[in-house]
Structures are given as C-alpha cells and as structure tokens.
Design a protein that fits this description.
Strand order of the largest sheet: 1-10-9-6-7
CATH class of the largest domain: Alpha Beta
CATH architecture of the largest domain: 4-Layer Sandwich
Distance between the termini: 77 Å
Strand content: 15-25%
Shape: elongated
Structural class: alpha+beta
Low-confidence stretches: 1-7, 21-36
Length: 380
C-alpha cells in the first residue's frame, strides 16, 4: 500500500515537471514566432553604430553626414521590438545633439546639422516605429515573415497539383490571382480514389479575391483536401458545407464543383454548389455542352442537398471547369463570356489542348481584376 502511494506520488511529480517543461518550450516557441524573443544582440549592434556615425561626422565630415543616422533607424524598424526601438531613437537624438554642439552653427558643407536633417531622421524614425508596431501586432518576425509567405504560397501551389493520370488521359490547370498577386481565392484539390480508378477533382471559388480571400482559401483547401477521398463522393459537399458554416465568417460562402470521373469507362458525375456549369466538347459533333449538378452555395444554410449531373467522356472529348473570373465582366452577360471562352477553345481542337489552359486565360481574361482558374481534362 505504501509502495503504491510512493509510485503515485512520483508519477504526479513527474507529470507536473513534464507539464512545466512543455509549457516552457511552448512559451519560448510562441515568443520566438511572435517576435517577442530577445533582440539584445541586434540592439547592441545598432547602438554601437550610432556613436560610430557621430564620430565619423565630426572627424570625417566629407565622408559621413549626420543624415546617415537614418541607417540604424531603418534597420531597427525591421529588427527590433518597439520598446527597444525607442532606446535606439534616444541614442540617435543624443548623437544629433552632440553633433550640432561640437560642429557649431557656422559649420558648412554636408556635416552641418540642419533642421532638414533633423526632420529627415525623425520621419524615418516614425515610419520605423510604425513598421515595428505592425510586426508586433501580426506576430511575425521580419526575418521570417517573407519565408512564411513564400511557404504559404508554395503550399497552395502543391495542394492544387493534379495527380498523374493513366495513358490516354491529359489534364492541366492554370490559376491566375487578381492583380498579379501570389494568393488567390480560387483553388483546386484532387485525388485518385477507388484504387486509382476514380479521379476526384474539386474546383472552389471563395468569396472575395486576391489577398482578401487568400487566407480563407488556404484554410479551405487544407480542409477540403482532407475530406476528399475520405468520404463517399456524394458526402463531400455536405461535409464541406457544414465545415464552412462552423467558421462563422462574415464572408463565409463559396462556390464549388466536384468532378467524379471513372478513368476506365469515362463516365463521370458533377456535383455543384452554386458553381458555373462545366463545358464538355463532344468530338463527334464538335459542339460544347453545359454539364452541371444542382445545389446551393457552400456556407449559406445547413442541410443543403446536392443533386449530381452525369455524363460520359468519349475518346476525343474535352471537359473544361472554370471559375467566374473567366466569363464575368461588368456590363456583359455570362453567356457572352462563355461563348467567347468556347470560341477560343475551338482553336485548339485540331492541334490538341497541350498547354491550352494558360493561353485560354490570356486570351479571354488577361486583364480582369478577379481570380481566374481553368481546368482541362482530355481523353485522347
């Protein structure tokens, strides 16, 4: 009995110790990524440059001007926390005072401390403080912020990659964010399921565009990628709708189209959540046909139902999925945009659709201030 109590006591103490260690590691990690870690090395280095610049201004006035104090101030705005930055500003102000006293009012040339010099240094200090406060509010250190954005952009690109298809099939996708930005509200997730026999592709258009919709698109693409292939095809859109409703976003809706394609027979189903119809080119007749299912927007109301539309891709047929940025324009009906898109696509019928997705976006929606995505599936 006593041995059991001792074991329980040791276990409790071990758990408390482990909890403290985990909390300490978590706190230090959070502090690092929030930019709250120690910045004393950068502060010390910048503080040393201030008297060096002041000394150079007095000794070598031709080579070192008082306005050079903006250099450590700008670097401090990028590297230091706001509290440390104020200390650097105090050192720079002291250096200006010392320079003006030592050099005197009769000094001529670039070494003279003029009111313009003081205003220039003060203006740079103000903007540096704004940058430092923004970094502190966002919680991303300057030295890692660019890396994080690059990593997010690459994750979106990787998640939008289409899987390899068996011989006899060709697929390609092109995505162009609004305004030439790196982030888009349009995204694609795809997977081969059913032992590789079935291709499932989901093209989604999140409300908003560009950077405004980029964060929501990244979150949804990760969630949709986890759902795709984990659920039966007819359960995907209801699950995606429920997930979107639980986010409680102010702009919480999205359109989506879900393609389920049998790569052996060419038979497919399209389930749509308020998305534009797909377009199928029939090789026999050379005509384009709209194909779609029926369903409401994602994130509007619970219990939504999505009825599939069915079709078959025969040899030589082409299926095209796209977002509204390719066919919508102010003062123009969507049907006109669809006609223009199919007219441009007809040019690739004889030569093949290799590389056509990007060129189609260039041809019909090059300067449109909206996200544009186009997916092509061809059966040879």
């Amino acid at each position: 009995m006593g041995a059991a109590r001792r074991v329980d006591s040791y276990t409790a103490r071990w758990r408390k110790s482990a909890h403290r260690v985990r909390n300490g590691l978590r706190r230090s990690g959070v502090d690092y990524f929030r930019g709250d870690g120690s910045d004393w090395i950068a502060l010390a280095a910048l503080l040393l440059t201030v008297p060096a610049i002041a000394f150079g201004t007095i000794v070598l006035p031709v080579w070192c001007a008082p306005s050079m104090l903006v250099l450590p101030i700008v670097a401090g705005g990028l590297l230091l926390r706001p509290a440390s930055l104020l200390g650097l500003y105090a050192a720079a102000a002291t250096a200006l005072i010392v320079e003006s006293v030592v050099l005197g009012p009769y000094t001529q040339g670039p070494a003279r401390v003029t009111p313009g010099t003081v205003l220039t240094v003060a203006a740079c200090g103000f903007f540096g403080l704004v940058v430092a406060q923004f970094r502190a509010r966002v919680g991303v250190p300057w030295r890692r912020g660019g890396t994080m954005l690059f990593d997010l952009r690459e994750r979106i690109r990787v998640q939008s990659a289409l899987p390899q298809l068996p011989k006899g099939w060709h697929r390609e996708m092109a995505l162009r964010p609004a305004g030439g930005q790196s982030f888009s509200g349009d995204f694609v997730v795809a997977a081969r399921t059913n032992g590789g026999r079935t291709l499932e592709v989901v093209l989604t258009d999140v409300s908003g565009k560009g950077m405004d919709a980029g964060s929501r698109a990244l979150l949804l693409s990760g969630a949709f990628g986890g759902l795709l292939g984990s659920l039966p095809p007819h359960d995907f859109l209801p699950a995606a709708n429920g997930y979107l409703l639980r986010q409680n976003w102010d702009e919480g809706f999205a359109t989506s189209i879900h393609l389920v394609l049998d790569l052996e027979t060419g038979e497919y189903e399209l389930l749509s959540a308020g998305h534009l119809p797909a377009l199928q080119l029939h090789a026999g007749s050379g005509r384009w046909e709209e194909k779609s299912g029926e369903g409401p927007l994602l994130g509007v109301y619970d219990g939504a139902e999505f009825d599939p539309g069915k079709g078959v891709l025969a040899p030589g047929d082409v299926l095209m999925l796209f977002t509204d940025g390719l066919v919508e324009a102010p003062g123009r009906d969507i049907s006109e945009g669809v006609d223009r898109l199919t007219g441009e696509a007809d040019r690739y019928v004889s030569a093949g659709f290799e590389g056509a997705a990007w060129h189609l976006i260039e041809a019909v929606a090059k300067d449109v201030n909206d996200d544009r995505a186009l997916l092509l599936l061809c059966r040879d």
